[in-house]
Amino acid sequence: MSPSSKNNARSDKKNARTPKNGQKAPSAKKTPAASSTTGRRLAAVGAGAALVVAVVAAGLAIAKSSGGSGGSDDRAKPAATASPDPQQPLFDEAERMTSRREKGDPLALGKPDAPVVLVEYADYQCSFCGRFTRESQPELIKKYVDEGVLRIEFRNFPIFGDPSQRAARASWAAGRQGRFWQFHDELYAKTRKGDALAEDKLVDMARTAGVGDLDRFRADMKSDAAEEAVKKDQQEGYRLGVSSTPSFLVGGRPLAGAQPMKEFEAAVEQARLAKAARTPQTTEDSGKPKGGPGA
Fold first, then answer.
1. Which residue has the higher pLDDT, 18 or 36?
2. Distance CA 220, CA 266 (A)
3. Does the predicted model carry a pTM greater than 0.85?
4. Which of 261, 264, 241 is nearest to 251 (CA)?
């Protein structure tokens, strides 16, 4: 990775959680092999996607292993005069691959066409994920989401066992009734682990979050659809090399851990500048007929 990419991916490893005792996060299940015809047709696309995934995975690994302090002053700061990052096209492609931008997505905040998308991979037993939700997320919403600059898309990435899986499915079920973010914030209001995420406790939290039909909530939480939705999020993260929570992609650029707000501000501004640099600029007389009034 370029020095710029390493600086932008820096993270205090104490700000992210990984499975204990060397336990590996489960790998994404393999899908049946495609036909040779399909394989040939997608070969070029697959090669490009593999490169993008490799760059993102490397960035997340650097962010996870770095011992850099959140208060250091040598991290890269976005500036209009900064040299173009040669890896920017790969980050652009990573954003295209991971940003769903689906209208009406209950697990997203912000306009589908916002210039920058922040994708978060998180576990509901992760205390650092809770810190991000309580400390940085409200500021990001006020400063960027409400202004139409940023869209936040949440991905369930349960890596700490059955309670995490159950909470992830419950959050999806709350989203079915339009209360995902209220339930999400209630879950993260304090650190909850193990029995605190039992089914009855999750139902109580759903009631507090304003979920209206609790019988439907229970049924949705246990449904195959909930399991498939969570699995889809997990597999996306595994393909990118996510192994700790929280992990983020900001405009396709990796950032890991519950970083200070200024880290997220720098990442959003950098992504916004990169987007502006590749967006055609219109002039005041754009669309006007040429040659003067008599043309």
1. 18
2. 39
3. no
4. 264
Give the SS3 label for residue 144.
helix
Residue written as tokens 């959050």?
171
Parallel/antiparallel/unpaired status of strands 150-156 and 116-122: parallel
> Is it the case that residue 255 has pLDDT exceeding 50?
yes
- Whole-Å CA distances, 292 to 1, 141, 282: 52, 46, 19
**For the chain, how far is it from start to end, CA to CA, in angstroms?**
54
Q: Which residue has the tokens 């007929």?
A: 289
Q: Are 258 and 246 in contact (CB under 8 A)?
A: yes
3-state secondary structure (DSSP) of residue 250: strand
CA angle 41, 43, 46 (to 5 degrees): 125
CATH architecture for residues 3-12+48-68+75-161+223-277: 3-Layer(aba) Sandwich (3.40)
d(CA 131, CA 115): 25
Answer whether 15's CB lies under 8 Å from 135's CB.
no
